[in-house]
């Protein structure tokens, strides 16, 4: 998450473009171009013509920026002279003066913020960023916001750097005992430089804290810009399908030097219980009341969470939330706008579509600018395609009014001969069988990770293993688009009281490379509920659903759809010892012989949302 934040802040800064020499020259040229009577002043009418010209050539962002600069440079009669315009340009993009202040939370703990004020008399709207990564190291967006007429406020979260309190992630971010986000907004509203209109921005941890804040529904919060964030700290962060997300959880906590108690707490709550409900924003959709942009990537660690948060607020929030959400999903890992993603480079994917920029969003909801951002399509999603064939379909942005887009859930059945077929098996074929040894887990190769290699990667190195089942379709005779949520329905019997089902969906190219596209896991003791573990009865057939999250891809002609079923994905997830208990180095471990059924009464399948060809 920490590495991602610098990428986000750089992108935010780019929303408020800096005045390098070329930009400065163009700004200076505006004056003589629009000083029609050559009197050394720009009247209000001449300023308006200059702004409109900038809008036509450079877009709404720069037009709004010029309008703000003219307003600051104007005299009492609203005219701008040449000297004041030169001074305004000289000041543009400079880092504003910073003031560090400690503010007191409801429990008496003091949290530290940096305040960057714009020039002028105010009061101003505020853009707030809360971070566990140091407010001093992640202030790149402050100058741009201040230049655009916003107060930029950056806060060290509770227990982090110069802020007091427990050094436990997200403990003060929501609606529970500590409500640091709410208390901060209340403090901001009382400041003479704040006009009462506050927005939040941030990605990863800085996005998670925004989701939790929205669940508290604070008064004064008018807009959010959220990138790559979780909705639930249980099902999106720590336990996926009931399996502990080992590598990323342990690495993130250790690298960022959180209290070791944090990991102890997470491991002490393997089921979805009252502890996790305090950090589950889906329980608070009904009170959320703020417009928000949600940005994610198909290979991000929070890919499905980004979609779930959008859907929950868009359809189940209050009037201030319903119909006022935007969703942008690109072909990215946790580094939004960065290519390559894993072993693939997707074209036209180097940035978030400009019409969904933070500056347009905040200009509308904080400054009241009628820029049309609220009328943009609710959803922008990137349809991936074959990256080796320039003429292949896909690799393009599409837009929709809602999510999911219309698609037909199509069954790809598991067949005894190792094939994926569209016809349900008609006979009583014997099941597919593999044995999993916890002492030799199947390794992670790419996927929706943060701290270990991530993104779409060729699975060849693990497809030759014997502790799994591989099923492959025939070469496609035409391109097939899959857009939406991918699930597997598997009939399984195990020799153990517990096992995992790890499902990997791959796009198999004609040259044999098999790129991971979507994946999921289910710890079978949580097959019926994440709130209560239930051991398997050895030998009993169980129907299990595995959520592989969402994607959007066109499998090109002559490609194959491939699915790999194993009982591990390590170190992405911890290893299931097969005993019904959590893994421990010294604990008992048993081999797990698993039968995957593919007969007419127990037809295991992969369920793909297929979009009709246009």
Keywords:
single chain, alpha+beta, Recoverin, domain 1, Rossmann fold, Jelly Rolls, 3 domains, ten-stranded mixed beta sheet, 15 helices, 27% strand, globular, disordered N terminus
Describe the structure.
With 614 residues, the protein is α+β, with helices and mostly antiparallel strands. 24% of the residues lie in helices and 27% in strands. It folds into three domains: 19-91, Orthogonal Bundle (Recoverin, domain 1); 95-232 and 279-294 and 301-331 and 354-378, Alpha/Beta hydrolase fold, catalytic domain (Rossmann fold), CATH 3.40.50.1820; 408-611, Sandwich (Jelly Rolls). The strands form six sheets. Strands 3-4-6-5-7-8-11-12-13-14 form a ten-stranded mixed sheet, sandwiched between helices. Strands 15, 16, 17, 19, 22, 24 and 27 form a seven-stranded antiparallel sheet that branches. Helix 14 links the parallel strand 12 and strand 13. Helix 2 runs antiparallel to helix 5 and helix 4 packs across helix 5 (82-91). The longest helix is centred in the first third of the chain and has 15 residues, at 44-58. The protein is globular, with a radius of gyration of 27 Å.
What class do helices, strands and sheet pairing give?
Answer: alpha+beta
Helix percent reads 10-25%
For the biggest sheet, the summary is: 10 strands, mixed
Instruction: Flag low-confidence runs.
Output: 1-19
Task: Work out the number of β strands.
Answer: 27
How many helical elements? Answer: 15
| Termini Cα gap | 39 Å
């Amino acid at each position: 998450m920490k590495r991602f934040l610098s990428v986000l802040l750089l992108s935010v800064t780019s929303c408020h473009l800096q005045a390098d020499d070329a930009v400065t020259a163009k700004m200076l040229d505006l004056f003589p171009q629009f000083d029609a009577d050559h009197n050394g002043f720009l009247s209000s009418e001449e300023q308006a013509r200059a702004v409109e010209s900038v809008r036509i050539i450079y877009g709404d962002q720069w037009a709004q920026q010029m309008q703000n600069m003219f307003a600051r440079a104007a005299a009492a009669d609203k005219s701008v002279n040449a000297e004041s315009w030169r001074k305004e340009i000289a000041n543009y993009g400079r880092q504003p003066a910073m003031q560090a202040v400690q503010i007191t939370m409801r429990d008496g703990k003091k949290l530290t913020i940096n305040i960057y004020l714009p020039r002028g008399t105010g009061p101003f709207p505020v853009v707030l960023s809360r971070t566990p990564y140091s407010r001093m190291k992640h202030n790149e967006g402050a100058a741009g916001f201040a230049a655009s007429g916003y107060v930029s406020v950056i806060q060290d979260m509770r227990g982090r750097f110069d802020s007091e309190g427990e050094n436990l992630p997200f403990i003060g971010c929501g609606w529970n005992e500590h409500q640091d986000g709410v208390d901060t907004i209340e403090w901001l509203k009382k400041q003479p430089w704040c006009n009462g209109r506050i927005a939040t921005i941030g990605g990863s941890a800085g996005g998670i804290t925004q989701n939790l804040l929205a669940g508290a529904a604070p008064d004064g919060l008018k807009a959010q810009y959220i990138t790559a964030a979780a909705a639930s700290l249980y099902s999106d962060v720590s336990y996926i399908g009931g399996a502990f997300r080992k590598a990323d959880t342990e690495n993130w906590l250790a690298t960022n030097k959180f209290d070791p108690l944090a990991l102890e707490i997470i491991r002490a709550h393997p089921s979805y219980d009252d502890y996790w409900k305090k950090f589950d924003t889906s329980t608070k959709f009904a009170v959320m009341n703020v417009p928000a942009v949600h940005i994610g990537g198909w290979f991000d660690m929070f890919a499905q969470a980004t979609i779930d948060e959008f859907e929950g607020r868009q359809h189940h929030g209050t009037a201030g939330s319903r119909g006022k959400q935007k969703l942008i999903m690109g072909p990215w890992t946790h580094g939004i706008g960065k290519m390559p993603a894993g072993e693939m480079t997707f074209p036209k994917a180097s940035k978030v579509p400009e019409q969904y920029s933070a500056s347009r969003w905040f200009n509308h909801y904080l400054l009241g600018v009628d820029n049309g951002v609220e009328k943009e399509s609710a959803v922008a999603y990137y349809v991936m395609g074959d990256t080796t064939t320039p003429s292949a379909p896909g690799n393009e942005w599409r837009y929709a009014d809602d999510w999911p887009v219309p698609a037909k859930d199509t069954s790809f059945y598991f067949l005894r001969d190792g094939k994926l077929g569209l016809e349900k098996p008609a006979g009583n074929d014997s099941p597919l069988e593999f044995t999993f040894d916890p002492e030799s887990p199947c390794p992670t190769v790419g996927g929706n990770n943060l701290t270990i290699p991530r993104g779409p990667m060729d699975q060849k190195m693990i497809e030759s293993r014997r502790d799994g089942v591989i099923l492959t379709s025939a070469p496609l005779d035409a391109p097939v688009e899959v857009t939406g949520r991918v699930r597997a329905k598997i009939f399984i019997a195990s020799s153990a009281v517990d096992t995992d089902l790890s499902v990997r969906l791959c796009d198999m190219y004609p040259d044999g490379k098999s790129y991971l596209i979507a994946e999921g896991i289910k710890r079978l003791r949580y097959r019926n509920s994440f709130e209560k573990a239930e051991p398997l009865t050895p030998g009993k057939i169980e129907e299990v659903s595995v959520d592989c999250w969402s994607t959007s891809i066109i499998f090109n002609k002559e490609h194959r759809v491939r699915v790999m079923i194993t009982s591990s994905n390590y170190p992405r997830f911890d290893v299931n010892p097969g005993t019904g208990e959590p893994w421990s180095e010294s604990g008992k471990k048993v081999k797990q012989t698993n039968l995957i059924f593919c007969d007419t009464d127990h037809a295991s399948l992969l369920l793909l949302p297929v979009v009709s060809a246009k």
